[in-house]
Amino acid sequence: MKRFFLLAILSIFFAFTVNAHPASKVVLSYKNGKLDINITHKVKNFNTHYIKTVVIVVNGEVVKTMELTHQNDLDYSTFLLDLPLKKGDVVEVKTTCNKFGNKSGKITI
Predict the structure, then answer these.
(1) pLDDT at 93
(2) Domains, the chain, with CATH or none
(3) For residue 83, what are the CA distances in angstroms to 50, 53, 92?
(4) Closest CA to 28 of 96, 72, 78
(5) Around Cβ 37, how many Cβ atoms within 10 Å?
(6) pTM (2 d.p.)
């Protein structure tokens, strides 16, 4: 009986997570005062499975949080932000999928 319940729980967990995944890449670049964020997250329906949260951290401090309700495209989301930075600043962008998982990218200016 215990095996049956364990198997049932594992099956439900697997069924939920099979289509849920974090972004596969978070690529950052900085030019002319603009931070370019490219988040690769391939999905079948960008209205129901998407990057939900994007947090921009500069030198360990959160400078912007974006709460999203969908993705730009089936494969990726992109953002271009005005962000005054100086040489040596460390920028990290943390993403969270609305279904499952986190992924981040980092760049030193």
Answers:
(1) 96
(2) 21-108 (2.60.40.730)
(3) 24, 18, 13
(4) 78
(5) 21
(6) 0.77
